[in-house]
Sequence to fold (264 residues):
Amino acid sequence: MLDATRPDPVRSDLLDALAHKGIRHGFFTRAGGVSDGIYRGLNVGLGSGDSREAVIENRRRAARWLGVPETHLATVHQVHSPHVEIVTAPISYDQRPEADALVTATPGIALGILTADCGPILFADADARVVGAAHAGWKGAVYGIVENTLAAMENLGADRANIRAVLGPAISAANYEVGPERVADLIAADRAIEACLTPSARPGHAMFDLNRYTLDRLKRAGVTVDQVARCTYAEDHDFFSYRRTTHRQEPDYGRQLSAIVLET
Fold:
């Protein structure tokens, strides 16, 4: 039986293969948290309506699993942008910069991304000892969060040919319907998105495969890619989902954590 007080993140074999080089990662689920009600489990969203004490305790538990102090779990204030933050020291809760990715070459600082349907991506160059984490919603993916994260890692000494990138749990195409205006916006932003759209049952609407689009961007960028193919919308026991919350007309939603750290 799982310890209810201990997180139990899912992991990628691609990144697990780097554990002997001191890289630890996890795509955290709802397991092992103290929040209850609509936030049940390991909600780490400081911007949610959950109690701050519960969120901080959940972050503390995730940090402990990652092998770092609570103060060394770095996150940012995510704004669906292509902006990347280079991290060299811990980031306090109240001083999180606006960005949607983090990179570091500093051991002992875990980089964390929060999601509730968007795609979390974890990156590692084990030889150069550089890691990254990115939040890829459709805006971030379209406007360059993947490419900007890779460029920031290269600035820290990473070699793109050695970078491994894993897309974690996110909403699947089967549950991501977009309306006519969004379809038009997506195609206008990048014609390649047409290949990731299929007609839905409603006229003018389409099912958007954001995962495929993000993976395509990663592959075109020249890195080794893997995916943890879990759907945040469908698996309500394990994941928070903004879209599911909207469909259920719930007042708010939690956020799950995806994180990576260079061990000291």
